[in-house]
Amino acid sequence: xxxxxxxxxxxxxxxxxxxxxxxxxxxxxxxxxxxxxxxxxxxxxxxxxxxxxxxxxxxxxxxxxxxxxxxxxxxxxxxxxxxxxxxxxxxxxxxxxxxxxxxxxxxxxxxxxxxxxxxxxxxxxxxxxxxxxxxxxxxxxxxxxxxxxxxxxxxxxxxxxxxxxxxxxxxxxxxxxxxxxxxxxxxxxxxxxxxxxxxxxxxxxxxxxxxxxxxxxxxxxxxxxxxxxxxxxxxxxxxxxxxxxxxxxxxxxxxxxxxxxxxxxxxxxxxxxxxxxxxxxxxxxxxxxxxxxxxxxxxxxxxxxxxxxxxxxxxxxxxxxxxxxxxxxxxxxxxxxxxx
Length: 340
Fold this sequence. Notes:
The chain is 41% helix and 14% strand. It is an alpha/beta fold. The protein has two domains: 166 residues, Rossmann fold (3-Layer(aba) Sandwich); 126 residues, Rossmann fold. The N and C termini lie close together (9 Å).
């Protein structure tokens, strides 16, 4: 397999939940090619293929996003894929993150997903734009891949759901003050949040902090205790000075909300802590309302599939505690994607 290329930006396009792409004119209203559309149209609806919403994360932290999606949009069919065998992604190179993310996205497409949400911040920061601009227009014109960076920046700027769609790209927010992002090493190094915030709310001052030990703590189940609190305080120390408290603090990794009880004991109550699950779900619902052709393609049977690239029993034990429900977990083997 040819080595993945460094991220190439084809044009100045926003890293956005929307993932807007020009598609070939020979595409049916739902984004399927006309030949597939005619076949599907002739079938009885109950015999048609299941078109699911895919949610991808490097581990089980993305279940926090899935849980919010299922609460907000319970009728839809979902499949969750965790690349637990290769987690965490946070310290990996951009090339490797691109490669692993594309393999996972393609696997979800093969399962029938027409829309995939990259719940993993590292994947959203490092791989989303390459997938949107280089892979989909050539190989998957009928599919959409959405990220979590842009909707999170909208929340960080204090913008309500749908505000950007109404205001347009030429009307940046006038919000002022200090805001903070906590994320993995790769996410912070990419400066994706800084790039988007400077476009959307240029008067806000952003401070960012890499928290490389938080994901291993969560994956190990160490959510409470003196040791966990010590690591949290060490990362939060730059934000805790009374004269420079941020207005909002974004947990820029889907694992981090699992540390919320401990974080709330440390972070002063006047600081708003933003949970990405609560951010992404209403903004994805808004995206579906604004893209009815895509929405009509999705089936609504209430199905849920949970898949990991590692031990299903290990994943189920942790996922069940997070979701509060029994889980049947499958194992997937991802394949390299031919980039040619």
